[in-house]
Amino acid sequence: MNFAKLSAWWSARSRWEQAALIVWAGILLFVSVRVFFWPKAKTVYPIYSVSHLFWWDGTDLYEPYRPADVPGGFRYAPTFALMMAPFAFFPDSVGGILWRLAGAGALLGSLWWCLRVLPGAPTSRHTGWLFLLLVPLSMQSLNNGQANIHVAACMLATIACVFERRWTLAAVAIALAVVCKIYPLSLGLVLIVLYPRELSWRIPLAVAAAMLVPFLFQHPDYVVDQYRKWIENLRTEDRTNIPLEHMYRDLWLLFHLYGIPVGRTAYVLIQVGAGAAIAALCWYRQRSGWSEQTLLTSTLALVAAWMMLLGPSTESSSFALLAPSLAWSIVEAIRERPWRVRSLLLWGACAFFLAAVSLSSFARTVRISELGVHSWGSLLYFVYLLAEPRPPQAAVAAAPATPPPLPLAA
Description:
410 residues; mainly alpha; 67% helix
């Protein structure tokens, strides 16, 4: 693309789209410079890159001991260590930048894909708002190199693929997300309920294939041992009775803060029951004649909200998974200007998330996470999504005269 075409393309963008591009370019530049000069500061990326080296050396990925300059431990599937090859080939100062740029590009690209394929695409001004609204909940994962950005991109791509009837590609996208974080499988399970004929065999096959890939690149005994230790690591990790600052930012934290007498077994039943209820609700909406656009995007939002409120491991950086759906909900609320009690739930959730993001840098003086701010935001947004009214059929029928609702809105 020559300068004249680039200039014409830039001039065709609205001021909000230009602002979004400038903001994202500035963020990526700032993060890249920081990572280049301080590749091991405030980041989990060294855990990812060294895991790839451990893999090829046949070293235990889940051994508690780590070098002093590699914080924490590896908690991902063995396939994830293998997938880090394109980035671990470089030193962390370069590979860390490439990892973050790949995640940001995938997230922005998958959101743009959804905008292009789903009906009722927003105006250029609203498109700019959407990309700007991704920033607050995505920044922490982008800065510390967490895989949540990549997972969010896979989930968005899955929705676009299903709408375009690219079933195999949708299954692959889910499998990639599961390799990074196991709980995005919940989105795949709900989609299987909605599209059993197309996805009931594709998603399990894709996930199984992703998990079997490591056997092609290492001795089977080593791979089996690593899977055994990974599963044991997931099974034994428990943050239910630890200091508040290290607890997950989920509903359990609120139970703990307010002394609600719920045992761990009962809480697990709540988690599973809520997940099953979401699948049943989405199935009911499909049978009730919801447009596929609204059905798919509300399903994505509900599953992402469940992950944050009732998922197995919700950290501050995990809320990047909620960023796309929350951004769409905000833009839709601005467009439709609903004067209902339901809208107060959305703005309340936004207020909690904004407080969490803006005060996170003052962790030593304001222990915002210990107040359950993230958890309250997730709870309000989850209730907001559950209370979504059925789209009026008249509005769908009159699509040429009345713009359809914004996709991914909740």
